Amino acid sequence: MIDRFINYIESRHLFTLHDTLLVGVSGGRDSIVLADLLFNAGYAFAIAHCNFKLRGAESDQDETFVKELASKYDKPVYSKSFDTFKVAEDEGISIEMAARNLRYTWFEEIRKKHHYDWLLVAHHMDDQTETFFLNLSRGTGISGLTGMKAVNGKVVRPLLFAHGKEIETYACEHNLDFREDSSNFLMDFQRNKIRHMVIPLMEELNPSFRAGMKDTISHLSDAYQIFLQAIDRATERVVKHRATGEIEISLVELKMLNPLSTYLFEILKPYYFNGDVVDEMINCLDGQSGKQFFSPSHRAVLDRDVILVLKNRETTSKRYYLEGNCQRIEYPVKLKISSFKRDDSIKLHTPPNKALIDKDKVQFPLILRKWQPGDYFQPLGMKGMKKLSDFFVDEKFSLTDKEKTWLLTNGEEIIWIIGVRLDDRYKISPETRNMLEVDVE
């Protein structure tokens, strides 16, 4: 088996004899075999062990066993205990998920801190099959049926070539001691139900089931690569990336894709939109502009002929105050403020990033705030009042344009839509004696 092990590593270019490896060792048979194979093949490695405190004294005995193993191989060992039950309860997740998150987070911390090139874990082909059925039950789509990758970031799985029986035979032939995890037989865990109930039934139906699953997962993985290429081509056609970080999806181009729901789901997948939200979005594509759809991290907004995808923002009603002696602010908008007597030589027609204000018409402190529903102002050059929301529509402001807009106000009255339009009531007139100049920097 060691020859197949080395050949798998070298043929897949997983790592080299010059790389330093951190190996996750639970004390169970699979991770013990991985450590022994690495040792006999001459690779440089250290051992990391998580004590999840799930089985009382048995968990502590596992930790002691792994430390003794590291001593036997003369390898560095790192271990840490976790209150896994509390983490699962606090985060509202399963024990399995809590343990997985704790394990990989800590492993990566150790890997980075001590400068190991790769993190190795002992998943094998039977784990691959279990993952297939677990993801099938969860409805994860084709990506979840392609199995674990031999290399995923800095995580390497060098035993994916082998079945559990082969690993068991190796352990027996080399008289390897290992710890038997009693929780592996508890039907409280989903993976155990698949291992002890589903897979034996499939083998009863087809004695060659395990070999067939290996081929099936390989074919699905290849098919998924073809699928991703089609998604990438479509994404290049329908998605435009803005310099500000948002993306916009052309509705005209999107509606030409078939099946639409699959394409849109895959395009939005990096932004964590689930299938139900995507289906709802599709039903509203011809609806009213401005409708929003949310994922845990982003929102998608129907904005006329595009779907805008933006990071979720923190709604703010915060106000910032400008005192009369203020000459410059850096946040939330960079402004330079100057006061001086009326000067007829000054050009009153200023660019949008500058406002000339009759200082005697304002009362300090002035206020910087976001716009609110119900805001009115008198656009420069107009005699009547106008709803700010109507002004935005007339000026073809997108949702993001509106959200980024700041107002300079005198109490609740708008003086200036910063960088856009001055209120006519605060303009310089022949009666103006003192002027306030505000520049966006």
Explained architecture:
It is a single chain. This protein is α+β, with helices and mostly antiparallel strands and 441 residues long. It is built from 14 helices and 22 strands. The strands form 5 sheets. Strands 3-2-1-4-6-5 form a 6-stranded mixed sheet, with helices on both faces. The protein has a 5-stranded antiparallel sheet with strand order 7-8-11-10-9. Strands 12-16-19-20-21 form a 5-stranded antiparallel sheet, with no helix packed on it. Helix 4 (84-91) crosses helix 5 and helix 11 (260-268) crosses helix 12 (275-283). 24% of the residues are buried. The model has no long low-confidence stretch (mean pLDDT 90).
Q: Give the radius of gyration.
A: 32 Å
Measured as a percent range, the helix fraction is 25-40%
Count of DSSP H/I helices:
14
What fraction of the residues are assigned to beta strands by DSSP?
15-25%
What summary fits the major beta sheet? Answer: 6 strands, mixed
Q: pLDDT below 50 for ≥5 consecutive residues: which ranges? A: none
Q: Strand arrangement, largest sheet?
A: 3-2-1-4-6-5
- Estimated structural class: alpha+beta
- End-to-end Cα distance, whole Å, is 68 Å
- Give the integer mean of the pLDDT values: 90
Shape: elongated
How many beta-strand segments?
22
